[in-house]
Here is the input.
Amino acid sequence: MEIRKQPGSVIRHEVSAEDLALINRLARASLTGDQVYTFAIRLCDNEVDRDWERFDERSLEKLSSLFVGKSGIFDHNWTAGGQTARLYKTEVCEEDGVTLAGDPCRYLKGYAYMLRNEKNQALIDEIEAGIKKEVSVGCSVQKRVCSICGEDHCGHQGGRRYEGKLCYFTLMQPTDAYEWSFVAVPAQRKAGVIKGFSADAGGLRRLLAGHPEYLEQWEAMEKEAELGRRYMTGLRKDLVRLAGMADESLDLRIFARAADRMEEAELKELTRVYRARVDAAYSPVTQLKPRCFTPQDDEDGAFRV
Ligand SMILES: [Zn+2]
Here is the structure.
């Protein structure tokens, strides 16, 4: 199945001698540091995403090797001009915190190079200025495994809870990485997410296929339900993040599990309490450093969206 994910972002990166050696091996040239422009991108991570899917660490490792040498795609204006950037190095990086699935946070970082020439300069400027920030990746995986039953195709719905346990799907055994691309309009968060398969909410949809008026209604309800699930996930994440900031000794994994079972009113009340604590502890410092659940800026002095 084909997968497209859009969690990524650009990170500033300076070229080193080691980088240059890798680039030259790939480019079959002997370029100097002045001739190339390099930057790093956050390709994907192991967090459960808005589609209730996640890569596990093993998948990230596999993707890491699959992405080396792969070219980036820009929007039409750029592609027509023949501008290209290519990944010359990738690595799976650790970051603070745990995912919704309870795993330590990991992300796949890619290092890309472009030739510094007139043709590429405008694009380089856009990357530097932070206009080109969001990245999506396309790859294919062999398996998609339900967190509830371990099956590939089942009746469970991502984002729902079954006896308190969150349902999400783990994307496993990547077989190919096609490309990565810059997403033109970061605000359209859903825009980059295109998939070659549909999760099997199929039964009901097939049943309703002969009744377009109901199908439409059902789809509208599904959409609303999905919004509701995302809203609750957002509340839970905020709470866990705040709790982590307010109380360094808290075991966030256990706390996150508790938060998973809370309803809206409880989440809001606890969030209020922890926010007050955080405000008291950190004021008047404006820059708070969350302990987890928010992707951290990279050590390269990064910016991300
Ligand atoms: Zn299942």
Q: What stands out?
A: Strands lie at 2-12, 36-45, 53-55, 72-73, 86-98, 104-115, 135-146, 161-162, 165-166, 169-182.
